[in-house]
What does this fold into?
Amino acid sequence: MIEVHNLTKRYGDKVAVKDLTFTVRPGIVTGFLGPNGAGKSTTMRMIAGLDAPTEGTVSVNGGRYRDASAPMAQLGILLEARAVHTSRSAYNHLLALAQTNGIPSRRVAEVIDLVGLSEVAKKRVGGFSLGMGQRLGVASALLGDPQTVILDEPVNGLDPEGILWVRNLLKGLAAEGRTVFVSSHLMSEMALTAQRLIVVGRGQLIADTTVAEFVAQASGNVVVVRSPQSSELRELLVSPDVTVSAIAPGQIEVHGLSAEQIGDVAWENRLRIHELSTQQASLEEAFMELTRNAVEYHAHGVTPSHSADDRPVTSGDPR
Amino acid sequence: MTAAATHSADIRPAFPGMKVTQARVIKSEWTKFRSLRSTKIILLVSIILTIGVSALICAVTASHWTRLEPGDRASFNAVASSLNGILISQLAVGVLGVLLISGEYATGMIRASLTAAPKRLPVLWGKIAVFAGVVGTASIVSTFVSFFLGQALLTGHNLRVGISSPGALRMVIAAGVYLLLVGIIGMALGCLLRNTAAGISSLVALFFVIPPILGLLPKSWSDKIGPYLPANAGEAFWGHPEGSHLSPWVGLAVLCAWTAVAVALAAVRLTRYDA
It folds into this structure.
């Protein structure tokens, strides 16, 4: 269990994390989602006691991490930036960490085997690929068989097989009753791995919800209508709360009305409908929509294509 | 109720007796020390410099003895001459000290070290303990070797002195202790500055640049401040410097004070600032 309460972190004038409150519960995988620079890593560093909060509190399994007598049994952490001396072998790196907490050396061999680094365990970490480095980071996080696991961008640099491995590993850890907190900027990855989501943007909480709710909430009602009389239908549907855009000849997309409401309007006005389907927004789109204003570093000249107000109310051009 | 007891009771470590202790952190730091080739190479270099440069000085002095100025002969100290290699090897030892901590910041290892032992100070004490054990032993052994080798080279002109001659044993041990303290100051600089280049530069400034610059100031100033610089106070302890106002033991006390202040600042930096 991780409890974050009114957490704020300022670096000089810059606010990295602002009044963040959330709880990460055991038994499920909780995703920590946000664009780059949203304060995910900073928050994770504060949970692990590496950075001190400017305001607010953080607790891990009910206590301050710094006060734990066997810290590595409480929390295992994979930090985004590599935290390994490049000239040391993977085995010696893990052995040195294990020794601080009195973890037996057989456990070192065990985690090396678990992450699939047995063949390179005695080689210098400096020669590792990004993926191997990530596996070593996961090994160090699991070393103390911790109750709570924090992984910052664990699938970064992994090949598809490695990504699948991390996904199953996280689910397995959660199934064992552990608290699993995983950050990512890859929404699709979170959709497959996480049950709950904590979404942040510019250091602030945007959503604390389940994956399913998050998608439903953000997608609103997007209904695709195919009709030979689409322009007449559009005139009838448009209102201050409803936007309609043409997506192809004879095809429109309606925001703000349900399929039932649109069907009723068409029926009442004797308009023919060939297709009426509710679109489930992907997690990706939901995320873009919710964090649109929270993205700190926009690429200049690029507008997020999924934003709702991109769609002109009356545009005849097929998109 | 202790702070640790506030953690939920249902979490039982998977491995019996799992707990961070100072002894375990020292063991871990020893693993880190011995598993880096660079630290072993620098340590070896420092030993070679201590012994080699001392032997060279003694050999050259012995071969040129008859041609030396009377003043030089009068100020000659056989014990100090056989230890003069530490004037150079102190740089290697100091750099080793800086690297042991700044290297962890450079690679990010420090974050792993401090999450494994989040109270942080045990990590600093562990590093200093391992450094004192390994480098302290190596330094004292090499100053003894240096002394005996140097005396053997000085035999020719009847210049050699025994280890039982006045001050000899103190100077030989003091030279080793001096090297160790320079190394610990290096560690403190590495911890304070968290950067290898900055750490080494400030070490060089403190021991090699500031002393000669001080000599350019009016004599009344340099005489007042000079002896209290770590390098000069150290030399009062291990060597036979001309015109030093400090007795060996006051020299040791001043050097220890420098070390203690540096380590205290390092401890504050480590615990009070974000890693």
